Amino acid sequence: MSYNWKRVVVKVGSALISPNKIGCSSHYLLSIAQFIVKCRAMGTQVVLVSSGSVAAGAHQFSDHEKSEIAVKKAMAAAGQTEMIATWDRLFDFPSAQILLTHADLRDRERYISIRETIFSLLEHEILPIINENDTVTTDKLKVGDNDNLSAMVAAAADADALIICSDVDGLYDKNPNEHDDAKLLSWVDNIDQSIYDMAGGAVAGGVGTGGMRTKIEAAEKAVSHGIDTFIVNGFTETTFNLLLDGKNPGTHFQAHDKPMKENIHWMRHTSNAQGEVIVESDFAASLESEAEQLTSSEIIDVKGEFSVGDTILVRKDDGTKLVKARSNYSSCLLNFIAKQDNEEFAQEFEKKTGPIISNKHIANLEKE
């Protein structure tokens, strides 16, 4: 393989799994499976992120058009086994199912456990097939779309490349369904607002939950971790032949030359802030070094409920986001300390219990 990838994450959406919403179809999956087989034969490890459980199970429910959450969860439960069985039939090597919620990814210990599981499966030449656990997830615990999930998985797996299979050839400068003069962007080296402006929302009436915007969000997460990202047309066999030849069949988002460290990337792009700590607008410390600690005297408000070890957002009262960091205090204790009139008491307490936030797990938001 001309790209010389050691590890690749391939994301496949619901429209490829169940194009007619009547169960799984291998029609479009054959070329993807062959691509995975050939990658493995060349020594490239592959992780598969596959949507489709809800779409695959919908045909088993007479009321599948209803939007009740309980019905969709039941569809996911019924469709997940069919989807995994469909993939398994396409391979002559073992595969393994990993179902995740955002709660699994945002908890540092569980995130590390996920990494270790993926690495162990790959070491034993077993194909990890990952999906969001739609059967048990709630809005609070949901990633929401498998584009962003695939980027989080690619970071967790230390992948070299992320391939997001879409129903179009890549990112166009305008909607190709509405404009005949729309041009495909083959190369993007910087994801800024102009790139997001080219993307719309999810397609009305479509099978999947994401659109081009979620794919760009995923690309932004991945490239910041040093992962080359491709948005390609998953419905054509030519796509995968070109990738095997080291050619770009869609839009290639270039990986950053200086990627974020793994723990910083997790803090910024995967871990959700469970609460906020508000400081004065003239607060100047970067908080990235042990010499610049956040003290209770600088806190003017604490919002939300969080526990020791949770990720929190530190921002100024004018709205400026400073950092995301791991809190060494619960919101209840931090509120108590910050509201003490006796400043010496607060200082002595912090000397004994340590800093409010952990500098080893901090992501600066002002730089981005």
Automatic annotation (TrEMBL):
Substrate binds at S51, D134, N146. One of its GO terms (molecular function) is glutamate 5-kinase activity. ATP binds at K11, S166, D167, T209, G210, G211, M212, R213, T214, K215. It is an enzyme of class 2 (transferase). Residues 6-233 form the Aspartate/glutamate/uridylate kinase domain. Pathway: Amino-acid biosynthesis; L-proline biosynthesis; L-glutamate 5-semialdehyde from L-glutamate: step 1/2. SUPFAM superfamilies: Carbamate kinase-like, PUA domain-like. Signal peptide: none annotated. Its EC number is 2.7.2.11. Its main location: cytoplasm. InterPro entries: AceGlu_kinase-like_sf (IPR036393), Asp/Glu/Uridylate_kinase (IPR001048), G5K_ProB (IPR041739), Glu/AcGlu_kinase (IPR001057), Glu_5kinase (IPR011529), Glu_5kinase/COase_Synthase (IPR005715), Glutamate_5-kinase_CS (IPR019797), PUA-like_sf (IPR015947). Keywords: Amino-acid biosynthesis, ATP-binding, Cytoplasm, Kinase, Nucleotide-binding, Proline biosynthesis, Transferase. The keyword Cytoplasm applies. It catalyses: L-glutamate + ATP = L-glutamyl 5-phosphate + ADP. The keyword Kinase applies. It is found in: Cytoplasm. Catalyzes the transfer of a phosphate group to glutamate to form L-glutamate 5-phosphate. Belongs to the glutamate 5-kinase family. This is Glutamate 5-kinase. It comes from Alteromonas aquimaris. The gene is proB.
